[in-house]
Automatic annotation (TrEMBL):
Source organism per UniProt: Calidifontibacillus erzurumensis
Record protein name field: Rrf2 family transcriptional regulator
GO molecular function, one term: DNA-binding transcription factor activity
Cross-referenced SUPFAM superfamilies: Winged helix' DNA-binding domain (SSF46785)
Cross-referenced Gene3D superfamilies: Winged helix-like DNA-binding domain superfamily/Winged helix DNA-binding domain
GO cellular component, one term: cytosol
Length: 156
């Protein structure tokens, strides 16, 4: 799995909108804060709108606003919707599996499956709200990333 500029820039735009929760943000302001061109943002925001993450407002004071609460925007879902499968290899993909002539007895497939599962777990457990509240951190003494939510917060 490789996140392209499309996925990266879309997440940046969602973060800007999340920081301005409830306010209409102009495409120029999003561009200034993300360092992404207005032309490219127009394409990305149109996709995000079609996917139901943002809504647009027309007119002089027009722009974009989040359509969902940041805690309801799952990062794994956003990346899958924009980039496709999370698996690094098609033979290990759950959603876009493609057989390989070397698959039977392949010693690499378990590795690719573990990579897929690890990436999917982290992204699916992360929301836009987690990013906005800086709840992503490396667990001390461990070699994995965790999302630290407040007690009583909903886990995905």
């Amino acid at each position: 799995m490789k996140v392209s500029s499309k996925g990266e820039y879309a997440l940046r735009a969602l973060l800007v909108l999340g920081e301005q929760r409830g306010k209409v943000v102009s495409i120029q302001e999003i561009s200034n804060k993300t360092l992404v061109t207005v032309n490219y943002l127009e394409q990305l925001l149109l996709q995000l709108k079609k996917l139901g993450y943002v809504v647009s407002k027309r007119g002089v004071k027009g722009g974009y606003i989040l359509h969902k609460d940041p805690d309801e925007i799952n990062i794994g879902e956003v990346i899958r919707n924009l980039e496709g499968p999370l698996s690094p290899m098609s033979c290990a993909s759950i959603t876009k599996y493609e057989p390989c002539p070397l698959e039977e007895g392949c010693l690499l497939k378990p590795l690719w499956s573990l990579v897929r599962d690890t990436i999917a777990y982290v992204l699916e457990q992360t929301t836009l709200g987690d990013l906005l509240e800086n709840r992503i951190s490396l667990a001390k003494g461990d070699d994995f990333v965790v999302v630290k939510r407040k007690p009583g917060a909903k886990n995905l």
